[in-house]
Amino acid sequence: MNLNISGHHLEITPAIRDYVAEKLDRIKRHFDHVIDASIIMQVEKLIHKVEVNLHVSGRDFHAHAEDGNMYAAIDMMADKLDRQIVKHKEKSSDHHPDGGSAKRQLSGI
User: Fold this and answer.
1) Which DSSP letter does residue 105 get?
2) How far apart, in Å, are the Cα atoms of 83 and each of 18, 48, 76, 106?
3) What is the CATH T-level fold of the domain 2-107, as seen in this structure?
4) What residue ranges do the domains of the chain occupy?
5) For position 44, what pLDDT does the model report?
6) Model-level pTM?
């Protein structure tokens, strides 16, 4: 996975970079087809904002979070992204959970 982290009015320290990478590893546990992630962190007055664009094969995901603490904003962003990935994975893998279409189930074929 290609990880691109940039900061607006904020210096990206190695601790923040490691924390973001650790949180995105949780995403890779659910869905391992992640191509790249672009993360933008910014500080406006006392609000810390984190925005991520995640590119997977066939789809792009976007999550945005704001908080008074940068680490809390990263946690919220990771949770939002995790929910989106799990929902996408369930949709793509579970088209016919009971063995086929409704017509086929009723006729017993």
Assistant:
1) H
2) 22, 21, 11, 34
3) Double Stranded RNA Binding Domain (3.30.160)
4) 2-107
5) 93
6) 0.80
Token look-up 């933008």 returns 40
79-91 pLDDT, tens per residue? 999 999 888 888 8
Report helix, strand or coil for 107: helix
12, two tokens: 């990206």
Torsion of CA 20, 22, 27, 32, to 10 degrees: 120
Tens digits of residue pLDDT in 19-70: 999 998 888 887 777 889 999 999 999 999 999 999 988 889 999 999 999 9
Residues 28, 86: Cα–Cα separation, whole Å: 11
Q: What is the DSSP string of 70-97?
A: HHHHHHHHHHHHHHHHHHHHHHHH-S-T
- Compare 105 and 44 and report the one with higher pLDDT: 44
Instruction: Judge contact between 65 and 73, C-beta under 8 A.
Output: yes
